[in-house]
Amino acid sequence: MGETVKLKLDLHDIYNKGDQIDRALRGIIDEAIRTKATEVEIIPGKGSGQLKKKVLRFLDQKEIKALYHRIDKDAKNHGRLFVYFKHK
């Protein structure tokens, strides 16, 4: 088994910029595929939960969903999500 490559995306700075958020999410997913990362940590932050919902909606799109294996919500920190990848 290869080593675990982890990427991290912190959305705190662009929490109110919708188009940038989508671009950042798409970018980190593309990077995960390019670098064969196995895990991406996305930090929408705690806030009102709106940003996390937006992130989940983004990840739920059919063409995006096809790119990753599964999502895990951090039970201890609701301001954090993990996206796992399986590369062939």
Descriptive notes:
It comes from Nonomuraea recticatena. It holds the Pfam family Smr. Residues 9-86 form the Smr domain. This is Smr/MutS family protein. The structure is a single chain. Helix content is 36%, strand content 20%. It has helices spanning 18-35, 50-59, 62-65, and strands spanning 6-10, 39-43, 70-73, 81-84. It has a 4-stranded mixed sheet, covered by helices on one side. With 88 residues, the chain is an alpha+beta fold. The longest helix has 18 residues, at 18-35. The mean pLDDT is 89.
Structural class: alpha+beta
Poorly predicted tracts of residues: none
Quaternary state of the chains: single chain
Mean pLDDT: 89
Strand order of the largest sheet: 1-2-4-3
Helix content: 25-40%
Number of helices: 3
What is the 3D shape? globular
**Major sheet details:** 4 strands, mixed
